[in-house]
Amino acid sequence: MKVKITSIVFLLFSIVSFSQTKEINKKIDYLVDNKFSSLDIIDSVLRKNRKDKPILELLVKKSKEKAYLEGEFYGSNGLGRYYRDHSIFNKSITFYKKALGISRVLKDTVSEVKILNSMGSVYRRQDDIRKALNYHKEALDIAVHIKNPKVSIKKSISISQNSIGNIYISLKQYKLALNEFKKSIVVQRELGHKLGLAINHQNIGNAHEELGDLDKALNNYKKSLNYNNQISSKIGRVICGYSIANVLIKQKKYNKAFITVDTVLQTAIQQKDKYYLSNTYSTLGLAQLHLNKLDNAKKNLTTALKIATEFNVHTIVVKANENLALLYEKQNDFQKAFNYYRIAKEEDAKTLNERNLLYVSEIIAKYDKEHSENQIKDLAKKNQIAQLQITRNRNIWIMVLSILALTTVVFFSISKQKGLKNEKRILSLKQDALRSQMNPHFMFNALNSIKLYIIENDQKKATSYLNKFSKLMRKILEASSIQETTLAEEIQTMKLYMSIENIRFSNEIDFNIAIDSNLSLETIKIPPLVLQPFLENSLWHGLSSKKEDKKITISIKKVSPEYIQIAIEDNGIGRKASAKIKAEKSINRKSIGINLTEDRLLNFSKNLKNDYSITYVDLEDKNIHTTGTKVIIKLPLF
After folding, report:
1. Backbone angles phi, psi at 525, to 5 degrees
2. CA-to-CA distance for 416 and 301, rounded, in angstroms?
3. Nearest by Cα to 129 from 161, 174, 166
4. For residue 237, which phi and psi values (nearest 5 degrees)?
5. Which of 77, 153, 324, 417 is the most exposed place for a label (fewest CB within 10 A)?
């Protein structure tokens, strides 16, 4: 009798399952055959099945066969979300990238922004801060430039701000994080979006908890839980459960913390999201640890560590190791405690150094970029004014033609035009000089050197290098606004430049300056930063390919009452060998510095009695072997 009942139940289940499969196939065929362009229509048909992996895979397969891009997008996006929620991050990114490409083919900006935010979220869960930040910023940049944004775009802007706030928390920049969350929650309040409000209050609580304001943290976590209860979000309840429990542990309310987190454990297991599950086990184990339930604590903390390690949940890897260290300390097993504590600190220091580096590098790069862009914009405005001045004066001279003789008008007009054109040329040279000195290769390499010292935890060298780099940037920006400087100031700037470059060459370069004792460098005027391109050439074309014994010498002397001579000599591989290496490279460094310097020297010497000259000398020994290159620059004194 029991066998018959079982058979009947199985038969009924098979019939229902077959019927449901047949119904789903009909729905997908209906969508694919009609090729609806509206994603809302697709969602209305498949809303109940949008988390069902086989159905999403079937939709993608049939959409590809019929070249139905909207259907393929919907299925790929759904699979990206499915794998993200199951902490299978590599597959999640693969499907999100497919969806992103399709959204761009369809020119669907709304979907593109959503996918970019989703990809940022996946990378953030893996603590890949750089990629997460890039995707969220790209989404935000696109969204804020959309005119008359719809509700979905406003939500996406809020999501980007919220996610950037979470990245700031990872960087331990909690006040900056709060600023982002406060901007994000404004949009969610305007829209009355309860899920968004739940997420923002959760994150605001997290920032306050890290700042040590536990009352504010608990208040925001409870607000988040209230919204999650209103929308029946199971995963939201899990997050609030272990977050509230963590605050209670810090308040030493261990029993209450244990009950709170234990209540949501089964829900966390059912949701299958390893990111939140590892958090739950970690918090539960910590509560049990403080209640001296050490066996249970060890079991749950080990489970948290195993899940976090397998699914790359880095924050829990650190926390679980710290808590296991505390557990073994309580058991007086100090060797194991030390091992777990060491692993936790090594992991945390490694990631934290990388994050701090990213943060510092971005702030410096942003500061320098803004300053250089402002300088360039200012010069461009002056250039525009000069152009307008030319036009205005041309019109004035046309009016004067009726009063003055034709020859007089032509004479003054040409004279004025030349003066303004010269002024325009000076401004253009300033712009070009600033761009040349703000060499992106040099700035990138300098910041990478700072990165190395930070990673090596050499704060003294990092601070010294950063100070030198800042001083050099300031001198370059200041130089862009003047036409000439003293030779003494130029030599100081070149010393600063070479000290920075020499650090990146591991201080292998022997750099010396020999100055004629009869010269007064303070009274000699030259164009600012005129020597830098020649030193750069010596470094990159002369010495970079040489193994040892690298030397650069600057010699300054007065060769006649009318001229001073500046010689820059290196013992590099020589111009011929350098040219051969450059020709063999598939990618060459873009160099416009020497040509620009010659233009500047030409403009500088126009107002002087004598002209400048630049001579290149290939140095050779008695066996006619190349021993280096010397550049001789003769500058007029008047």
Report:
1. -105, 135
2. 82
3. 166
4. -65, -35
5. 417
Residue 54 tokens, joined: 């086989």
> Contact 627/577 with Cβ under 8 angstroms?
no
Q: In this model, does residue 559 exceed pLDDT 80?
A: yes
Cβ-count burial 346-378 (b if 16+ within 10 Å, e if not): ebbeebeebbbbbbbbeebeeebeeebeebbee
Contacts of 273 by beta carbon, 8 Å cutoff, 6+ apart? 85, 86, 87, 235
Question: Which alpha helices (DSSP H) does 291-333 contain, by range?
Answer: 294-310, 314-330
- pTM of the full structure: 0.49
For residues 155 and 152, give the distance between their C-alpha atoms in angstroms, rounded to a whole number: 5
* Tokens linked to 252: 């030493």
Lowest mean pLDDT among 3-12, 460-469, 482-491: 3-12
Q: φ and ψ at 555, to 5 degrees?
A: -115, 130
H or E element that contains 573: none
Nearest Cα to Cα of residue 241 among 210, 211, 262, 271: 262
Instruction: Give the CA count within 13 Å in the CB-facing half-sphere of 406.
Output: 0
Q: Are the C-beta atoms of residues 595 and 518 closer than 8 Å to each other?
A: no
CA atoms of 558 and 568, how far apart (whole Å) = 15
Question: 233-332, what's its fold?
Answer: 1.25.40
- Tell me the fold of 483-638: Heat Shock Protein 90 (3.30.565)
C-alpha R_g of the chain? 34
What is the dihedral angle through the alpha carbons of 378, 380, 383, 387, rounded to the nearest 10 degrees? -130
State the pLDDT at residue 150.
85
Please tell me the distance from the alpha carbon of residue 321 to that of residue 518, in angstroms, as a whole number: 69
Q: Is residue 466 within 8 Å of residue 449, measured between CB atoms?
A: no
Name beta bridge partners: 510: 551
8 Å CB contact between 301 and 323: yes
Q: Which residues neighbour 110 within 8 Å (Cβ) at sequence distance 6 or greater? A: 150, 152, 153, 156
Q: Is 526 helix (H, G, I), strand (E, B) or coil?
A: strand
Give the span between the Cα atoms of 597 and 623, in whole angstroms: 34
Q: Are 301 and 286 in contact (CB under 8 A)?
A: yes
Beta pairing partners, 617: 630
Residue 418 has pLDDT above 70, yes or no: no
pLDDT at 20: 63
Strand partners, 555: 514, 567
Please list the helix, strand and coil fractions of the chain in percent, rounded to the nearest 5, in that order: 75, 5, 20
Instruction: Write the DSSP symbol of residue 542.
Output: I
Query: Is residue 86 within a helix (H) or strand (E), and if so which, with residue range?
Result: none
Given a contact cutoff of 8 angstroms between Cβ atoms, the answer to whether 291 and 255 are in contact is yes
Report the alpha-carbon distance of residue 381 to residue 580 in Å, rounded. Answer: 42
Please tell me the distance from the alpha carbon of residue 14 to that of residue 4, in angstroms, as a whole number. 15
* Helix, strand, or coil (residue 236): helix
Least confident of 165-174, 220-229, 526-535, 584-593: 584-593
- For residues 162 and 127, the answer to whether their CB atoms sit within 8 Å is no
Exposure string (b/e) for 559-594, b if CB count within 10 Å is 16 or more?
eeeebbbbbbbbbbbbbeebeeeeeeeeeeeebebe
CA–CA distance, 198 with 179 (Å, rounded to integer): 17
3-state secondary structure of 566: strand
Domain spans, the chain: 233-332, 483-638
